[in-house]
């Protein structure tokens, strides 16, 4: 193998590794706590509203969706409309806290989600992805 090509390849790898933190910062904001309707960095992540669905029924759907995501349930209080869970990031095994709040507003069940990393200053977008996955799973369950 040509030594110049090998050296050039090593230089490219070094440059890419040096630039990766700058690229990651541009892709994902430096936050580790995302809440529906409250995180300016993710304006698309909003509470879910289910017209005509009772809060108790929405609670059951939320509980089933959380269980399907393999979250470790810490508390499920139907009377208060709160589900507390722990989600584990598959690769690094980080444990993140997830809180679901289910309420009734003008005849609609409203589901808010907060996902917060326990460690680090940036979650590399994991909390936002988790909320989106949960919201998708919940919407599919409610639609059935």
Shape: elongated
Integer-rounded radius of gyration: 20 Å
Oligomer: single chain
Characterize the main sheet. 6 strands, antiparallel
The overall pLDDT average reads 88
Order of H and E elements: HEEHEEEEH
Give the count of helical stretches.
3
Estimate the helix proportion, in percent.
25-40%
Rounded to the nearest angstrom, the distance between the terminal CA atoms is 60 Å
Which ranges are low-confidence, i.e. pLDDT below 50, for 5 or more consecutive residues? none
Beta fraction: 25-35%
Number of strands: 6
What structural category arises from helix and sheet content? Answer: alpha+beta
Features:
alpha+beta, six-stranded antiparallel sheet, about 140 residues
